[in-house]
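Run log // design_07
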């Protein structure tokens, strides 16, 4: 476990993955520091499925290792930290942090760029967010269909020309990580974060789970009911539980 300065978090090792026990205020403070000092980095959401995949996926493991902050995006991570370390931290959903960050950006007059989703979805998201957060400076946006190298290059150039302090990338896991890596290497953007399907929810083209499920850490079940094809990655959830319990008893046997 690592202790850190005021705007830093407590960091723990979970199945060999660094995970930060944070809340929204801690994350916003860290983001402010990155922007003020013109650092280049990203926040990475950690959930049980990623924890299992990281065990055999070197690229995903490197993404987690290099993140400025790995935050607990799922109830399973909160449970694991409590079981292993007795840490009483809360879940920090990436979708909710996006909204906290945009509200904060409006107050601080940060320049924001949005990248992801279909063209009509990202445009609608921009319209909704400008109405929701008065004064937010969304200086550009681009759809997330970047399989063509020329289109991807054009998107990176557009980000660079807009000179934002914050970029939020809403694409599938893996794809958004690779684009974020390019943004941080090829532009002067100090802060970036992947937000998955958040733009579809903001634009109203995809529903979010009911509050009762969100409050009880069951958003994954709602997604599974809407998209049964998600059953394949969900198979990793029991494996995550087993790995955490095994680590708990392994630690106990060596203390």
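design_07 sequence
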């Amino acid at each position: 476990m690592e202790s850190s300065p005021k705007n830093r978090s407590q960091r723990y090792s979970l199945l060999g993955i660094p995970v930060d026990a944070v809340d929204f205020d801690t994350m916003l403070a860290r983001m402010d520091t990155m922007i003020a000092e013109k650092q280049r980095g990203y926040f990475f959401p950690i959930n049980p499925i990623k924890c299992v995949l990281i065990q055999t996926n070197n690229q995903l493991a490197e993404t987690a290792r290099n993140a400025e902050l790995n935050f607990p995006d799922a109830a399973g991570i909160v449970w694991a930290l409590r079981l292993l370390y007795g840490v009483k931290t809360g879940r920090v959903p990436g979708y909710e942090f996006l909204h906290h960050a945009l509200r904060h950006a409006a107050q601080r007059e940060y320049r924001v760029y949005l990248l992801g989703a279909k063209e009509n979805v990202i445009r609608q998201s921009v319209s909704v967010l400008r109405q929701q957060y008065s004064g937010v400076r969304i200086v550009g946006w681009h759809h997330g269909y970047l399989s063509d190298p020329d289109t991807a290059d054009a998107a990176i150039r557009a980000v660079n020309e807009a000179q934002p302090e914050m970029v939020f990338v809403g694409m599938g896991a893996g794809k958004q990580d690779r684009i974020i890596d390019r943004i941080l290497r090829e532009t002067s953007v100090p802060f970036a974060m992947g937000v998955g399907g958040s733009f579809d929810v903001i634009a109203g083209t995809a529903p979010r789970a009911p509050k009762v499920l969100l409050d009880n850490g069951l958003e994954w079940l709602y997604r599974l009911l809407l998209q049964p094809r998600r059953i394949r990655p969900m198979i990793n959830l029991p494996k995550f539980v087993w790995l955490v319990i095994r680590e708990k008893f392994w630690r106990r046997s060596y203390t």
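The chain has two domains: 1-92+218-255, 113-208.
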